[in-house]
Structure formats: structure tokens, C-alpha cells
Amino acid sequence: MRIIAGFEEPTTGTLKINGQNATSLPPEKRSVNMVFQRYALFPHLDVFDNVAFGLRLRKLPKGEVNKQVTAMLHLVQLESYSGRWIHELSGGQCQRVALARALVNQPDVLLLDEPLAALDLKIRHHMLRELKRIHEETGTTFVYVTHDQDEAMILSDRVVLMNKGEIAQLGSPQDLYAAPESLFCAKFFGETNILEGRVDKITRGVADISTPLFSAKGAARNAREGETVSISIRPEAMKLTGSDAPLLAGPNRLTGHVEDIVFIGNRVVYQVRHGDNLLSCQETRPVTGIQYTPGSHVHLNWPDEAVVVLTQ
Amino acid sequence: MLRMYLWLYVLFLYAPIVIIGMFSFHSSPSLVFPFDGWSLRWYEQIFASRTFRESLWNSIIVATAASVVTTLLGATVALALIRIKGKMRDVIATICAAPIALPGLFLGIALVSGFAQVGMNRSLLTVTISHVLYALPFFVATLRSRIDYFDSSLEEAARDLGATTWQSFHLVTLPILRPSIVGAAILVFALSFDELIITVFVSGNESTLPMMIWSMMRRTVDPTINAASMVALGLSLIVITIAGAIFWLQRSAAISSRTSDLRVEANDQVDSTTEQRPQSVRPVQSFE
Asked: How many structural domains are present in chain A?
């Protein structure tokens, strides 16, 4: 992000903005603006002057500055705060001023460095919706750095998942969630069950995988026969049924007993013990109430599509 | 009981000032009670004295020059310190401010031999140089809290918004540091204005006001001393009042911009299409 903004130069590679090489352009010459993690608002200027800073540097006529700043303050819903000093604002308001100060310059790229990290949970959710609204209204390219997977999924069209400075995966939030390319990606977004197994056979792209306790079946992707792989199954893909009926033979099903039940309002998460594995299985809250108690014997099954094979 | 103590404390602090003040207006040369009546004769006498006027003028020149030079040097140090990251900043800032603890006697002797080494004749120039040396650590110490809290991402933010290095300095860094720099400069003026020990060592033929008062004191206990002291005190008070007024004006500008805001907010509900921005009392900054 500091490379895009121009505060640091990359050791290798080039940076292009709108197809133009910007690798060694100083920060003030780039059509890139940044929302700093701690906002970096100017304490000696009021809200209006903070937002007007960039426009005045570009020597816009006074009337134009007033018009654009007022419009921008309207967008972030801070019109009535224009004469306030920065220290008189709350965290959420500071964040919006920082956003307005950057956006008013109509940059080609807006950089946001964990902009919600300093806010508490409630304001965070509110600001997240605001950001999404402003993103949609302005149509500016946002580059948004976050450690929060929910923020990433809610806001993004494209997500670049980085692991130790390298790109682990690039794709839409749905791709990253449903088709992770590596164990790191699978574990990063949301909860999942990771199991180890061996590919026994691949027929027409479908792998039969055996684990010490049960067998699974799913798209082989780039796995080869005989290879040891990890499989990821999302908790919400698992279906829980009572153990009155005998377990049908075949892959992608197993039997176990409920070890723990976590009630999260609209959802219920069951921890099901199967040998050494503890699997979590998530269901929407049954309207008839929770039927199982810890210790209940249950069957679990899931569709072939839910099995994501990850080579190591 | 505690209140009693407080009054005693105030009495102890201000009795000398009140007594000197009173006797500087005394109509008789007596420096003891009973008090005979008021007159300005000692002030007339002191201002008629060439030595007094010259030493007062010398003191003002030295204090002004010392505060200007100290401010330039000290502010440069502060700006450099801002750019140092991490623990080194603390270490270097402490080194820069530590000579506060140096005894004036020591500094005076060191400076005398120092000037002799380089062959400089003692004059108001050596006095000024010495005062700068003496006041610089105080200046840096006064600015330290400001330096510690200065967020260097502010400069990056300015660059990001299109400011050149120079613009980000004079539109962001300097305005943020300015109130502290002004305060520290006034402190330096006051320090220099009544510095005696070092001055005694390094001055040449021209004397400063504290030196002149001190030498008068050695000869006789002359009532004009009271008047001279009051003039010195008065000047210091003026400088402090100016500093106070600057801070007060800044603060009241901030407060009135707040209240004018409330008014505008009320107006907004009636007419929200007003194109004028809510006016604040302080001048709107223009970047030309």
C-alpha cells in the first residue's frame, strides 16, 4: 500500500496506474489518495479545511472548493460539522473526515489502510455499510487492506489474499470462500473442517478419498492418484440426521455423537465427535427447537460438491 | 488551617514584590517604614541615568537576539527529532535537553576560556552567544512533549494530498509546532533578560540590566534600585502577558468558532441550501 501511495519504492517490479508507469513518481504527483490507519487528520485545521486541503493545493477557485467540499461533507453526512476541530470529533466521524479528505480529490485509486481497525464493533458495522454505499456512489477503485475477513467479503469485488508477503489467492469473495486454492486460504475465510486423506482413485475428475475412518468423494482438481491430500468441508454443508435409521453405505457420510452444542441465535453449531475427528456442523435454528443433546448419536452427510480437495 | 497556610504562602511569595514596588514610589529616600507618601522621583532619576538606559537597551537587544537565534537553532533540532524514529529519538532528545542541569558558574567559566581560545573579545556578542548556549536546552525541553506526540504520518498525509515536501512543512508541520515554538521563544527571552551569573563572566564593557542593578547594589543601597527592579519586572510581565494573550486569543478563536457552528446548525434547519460555509471567527487559511 505504501508503494502504491508512493512512500516507498519497490525493489523489483513496476507499478502502473491507469496503464501509466508510476513506479518512481513522488506521492504528490499521483492520482492516489490514502485513508490512513490512524486517519492522520490535521489537528490545526477544522473539518472543512481538512477536506479542502487537497483542492486548495491544486489552486481551485474558492467557490469551486466550497462547492466540492460541501458536497463531499454531504456524502459522508458531516455537513453540520464543517467548523469543528478534529479533537472534537468521535472516532467514526474522524474516519469519515479522512475518507472525505481523500475522496474529494477524485483519485483514480483510493487506498484504505485498515480504516476501521480503531473503531469499536458497533460503529464498525455501521461504517462498513457507509463505505459500501460511498463506494457504490462514487465508483472509485478502492484498495482496502484488512485483517478482518468479514470486511473483505462484504466490501470486495476482488480479494487478494496475502500470506507472508506473497499472494496466496486472487479472486472474488465467493471464489475464495467456495474454492480455496490452498490450506491457508481454506482456513482463512470462515470456519471449516479440515481432514486428511489419501486419493484412492480418480474417475472423470472425481476423486475417491479414504480417511482412516470414512471415505469421501469430490472434485479431484489438481490432485493425483495415491496422493495424500487435505479436504475441507464447510460446517454449513453438513447435514445432521438422527441415528434412528441405519447409516447407508457409501462415501460422504459418517456417524458420530454430539459433543457440544453452541447456540448462536439464528444458527446452531454442533460439534460432532467421530473417532479422533471433531467436526463442526452448522444448521439454521430448527423452528421445532434443538432436538439433540450432547451425547446423542447422529449421522452426518454432505454432498460431493461440498468436498474441496487441497493438495499439499 | 490550610487556608491560613495558603495565605501565608501567598504573602511569602509576593511580599518582596509589593515592598519593592511600594518603595519604588516612595517620596523619601528611606527604605524602611513609616511610609511618607508617593512620588515618581526614583523613576525620573533612573530614566535620567545613561547607564540605566544603556543597560536596559543592551538587555533588550541581547534577549531579542538570543531568542531569535535560539528559536532558529532549537526549532531545527525539533524538526530533526521528529524525523528520528523509535528509541533513538528519546535518547537524542534527552542529550539535547540535559545541559539544563549544568550550573551557570561552570558554563560561565567554560565560556570565558572558550572565547579566549578562539580570540574573541568579550562584548554583547559573546553575551548573546552564551545566552543562546544556556537557553537552547530549555528550548528543546519545552518542545519535547510536542515532538513526542507529533505524528509523522501527518506529513505523509499532506504529501498524499498533493503537497510538495516544502508545502507539507509550511502548511502542516510548522503550523502544528508554531504555538509551542512561540511559547518556548518567549521563555528564552525571559531567561536571557534576567540572566546574571554567566553574563558576569562573558560580558565586556557594556553591561546588562541585571548586571547594572547588581553593581548598584554593591555600592550603596540606593532607592533607585527599587525603580530599576520594577522596570525589569515590568518588562518580564509584559513579555509573559503577550505570551498569555497569544494563547488566550487562539483558545477564544477556537471557542467562538464552536459557538458560531451551533448557530449555523440552527440556521441549517431553516435554510439548508445556503452555499456559504459556516463562518468561523478565525481567519480562513488560504494557500497562496
From this structure: 2
